[in-house]
Specification:
mainly beta; Gamma-B Crystallin, domain 1; globular; Peptidase inhibitor family I36
Amino acid sequence: MATPAMAAPGGCPSGQTCLWKDINYTTGGVDWIYFVYTNGANDLRNYQWSFNGTVNDNVSSWYNNGNTEASFIFDNLNFQGQLSYLPIKFGRDNLGNASDRATSAGFRFCLNNPTSAKCV
């Protein structure tokens, strides 16, 4: 269940969405290691965690610190197969059954404009 937070966890920058490898907004036990996107990422296989492994299929919590749009994560490339949705300023500290399945992620803009250069 999505829950609102007073401040973005781990310092997730305003206007962006942050993904963490582990539950409770942490990666490797710390909250300041996260993957961040401003618009979207149509293929999370192209991104690496700073310590080891790809972001693809390695996300267990996330927070939408965007200012204008909902954010989504998807089971497939190019914003297909929606797994989870977050309204603005909401997060999920545990993706449950959707954990370790995200292959693309983006704000509503990328859902509506998947071929935009902003969504790569």
